Amino acid sequence: MLTDCSRAKAHCGKMRTRVLLSWLLLLLLTLGQGHVEAAFFDTSEDSGHLTIRYFNLVVENKEELQRHTDRTIKPGDAILVTTPDGRQILIDSGLTYVGDQLLKFLQQLGVDRLDYAFATHPHWDHIGGFLTLFPNIPIGKMYHVNVPNDTDTLRLFLQGLDDYAIPNRFLEAGDQLMLGDYVSASVLNPPAGTSPDTLESPENISTARINNLSLVMRLDYGETSALFTGDIYRAQERYLSAEYPEEMRANVLHAPHHGEETGSSFELIEAVMPEVTIISRDDLASIAIFNRYRAYDSDVYVTGMNGHILIRLDGESVQVVVEQEIDSPFLH
Questions:
Q1: Is the pLDDT of residue 16 over 50?
Q2: Arithmetic mean of pLDDT over the chain
Q3: Of 309, 327, 320, 324, nearest to 57 (Cα)?
Q4: Rounded Cα gap, residues 296 and 298, in angstroms
Q5: Is residue 199 part of a domain?
């Protein structure tokens, strides 16, 4: 390992004032930010690369919306993947409230069709944006997980698949896909056999249970790879790290559950050993988690602080371009 696990734990254990420091950090970042948004929307170099774009989505009137729900209002995940041969893939679509914003960004990138879409799990901050996309962008095939949830968002999502005649398929551990001619996908989660018949009822299934049944998938191109983890928690991270020690290794890691302390265990980081870690969130949930990845020499980027994030894999190496760099005494 690149660093001694006990030393990493001791280092991370010092960072206990995370909430106050997170907001102070965001305040500091409002000064002196340089913008390279044009690079994010420039697709001229996508050919021949596995290109991953993390959208920095912003919920407008967030405080007002929060007053009317007991659920945390956060934009959620929306990740556009473009294969070397031009296939367009969307992994999750963010919260319902950011659907129009996501549609605008996709149109700005010239995306008029999605060859494939993936819904990692049936929570509103991952599938909500699809409700806006369904009538506006054709989708060749939707991949999702066979996990119930008693919400209007999921009911509208499933209805949309029917209304727009979108072919769809459930995924589970052991499934293998080819996304175009050059990129393969290996599914590690949810466990094989996952279905409503093996789970609690939609009314009784817990948030944690659904999160731990998120789609976990590794994309491979040449000698490079990216691991997408949905919202899994520490227990599932440890299970997958023990069950799939080789398959979990990847150059790029999507930090589970938006970088919250429910995940990003030492076992996960040591299994993946990512060169690059992305936290998809409009703020920083935990400075300790950020610095934990840094203790393992991973370069860490946060959409809410770095803005849009562009990652290119050429089959041998990884390149990252962000709108703005983080400069803070609280992050190492």
A1: no
A2: 90
A3: 309
A4: 6
A5: yes
